Amino acid sequence: MRLPLRKKLYFSFLIIIVLFLVTASISTILTQRIVHFTNDILVSEKRLEAVQRLNLFARTANDNGAHYLLAPLYIEDDFKSQFEANVKYLDHEFGKLEDMTTEPSDLAMIRQFWDKWKAYVADRRNIMNLKKAGKVTEAQNNYTKISYDPIAFALHAFSKSEQAQIDGYKSRIEASGRTIQIMNLFMVSLATLLSLFIAIALSNSLIRRILLLRSNAQTVASGNLQVPDLHFKSKDELTDLANSFNAMTESLRSVMDSNQFLQQLSFRDGLTGIANRRCYDESLEQAWVQSAAASRPISLILLDIDCFKRFNDIYGHQAGDLCLKQVADLLQEQVRESGGLAARYGGEEFAVLLAGKTSGEACQIAEHFQKALAEQCIPHTGSDISEFVTVSIGISNLTATGENAPDDLLIEADHALYQAKEHGRNRICVYAHDQVTEGGLTP
User: Fold this and answer.
1) Which of 111, 147, 229, 425 has CB 3.0 to 4.6 Å from 246, enough for a Cys bridge?
2) 326, 272 Cβ separation under 8 angstroms
3) Are 429 and 416 within 8 A, CB to CB?
4) What are the distances in angstroms from CA 339 to CA 317, 336, 354, 362?
5) Average of per-residue pLDDT values in the chain
């Protein structure tokens, strides 16, 4: 039966996918078993540790009881208190061991141990009471008749049972691991052989067109969408694929154009049309890296429109928006020749980033802008400084090093702007690094 190319490929790929799914399912099941066995090993090891502690402290309690019977009167109470402390600790450990055990047979064994231990402790206390009553010889004789060995043997049997469980879990984990390895090897081998068979069977009729498709796809993947359209004479699935690829490439060209446009919009302030805060932040990071690499300075001009809230109150927000646009356009025009970035930092505040410029050069740019703004004569009857719109300006300058950060540039410019406002507004203040007091900001 002759199958279309598409169905042949689908059928071949389906077999490979089924192989992967089967192997993944088996591997998942075996991995879950391994995790389960590992958890069981951890629990068993904890129980084994608990049993070892029980055996150690039970022997210690037994020894303290014996010492009590042999000890003179002035120290016998010390051994008795140690005996009781050991018994209390063992009762607590038996309870913990019981909480960690879920198997009914193991629980029954532990409770049997506990009952034996309680009976053993009761006998030991009775014998100790004989000594307390003055029957020392009888107490010593009875103490040697009651052996601790049955309890020790029972604990040892439980330890061997736990160790056997741990060994069994480890064997199952190793078996599951080997099964996973065998299944993975089998799947990889079978998938490889099947892929080779498909490649050899279809290569004569497909190889040329597949290479063309691959070449164009790699070109597109590298970011170059200027590839020629593919046109195949044969009317089969590869031709459909080539047509789809041509349509996809055209769509990608449209999407790339749209993305570039959207990216430009995302870096622009919606009101003024100049760069926004996001564009400023990313540009500062890039300029900072370049400054660190080339040891070049970076200057920042931070300016604020004086008494702008009153401007909005008097003239209205529409006039305020128009004022912001005028200031932004003028700032953009003044900065363009210097290669700097003018951005709206927020509200009535603007920032100018000047990579490679000294504080003196930044100050000249700020002065030219301030002069150009004054020539615009934008009315502002609510200002305490002038009858026209004015700005206060703060300037900072840094060279990127390992001891400073981009935020330091903004902090210093903000300090300078604050001093410009404190000294009467409508002025320029430059942050001076050789001073650390208010005088370090010179108007």
Assistant:
1) 229
2) no
3) yes
4) 32, 5, 7, 12
5) 78
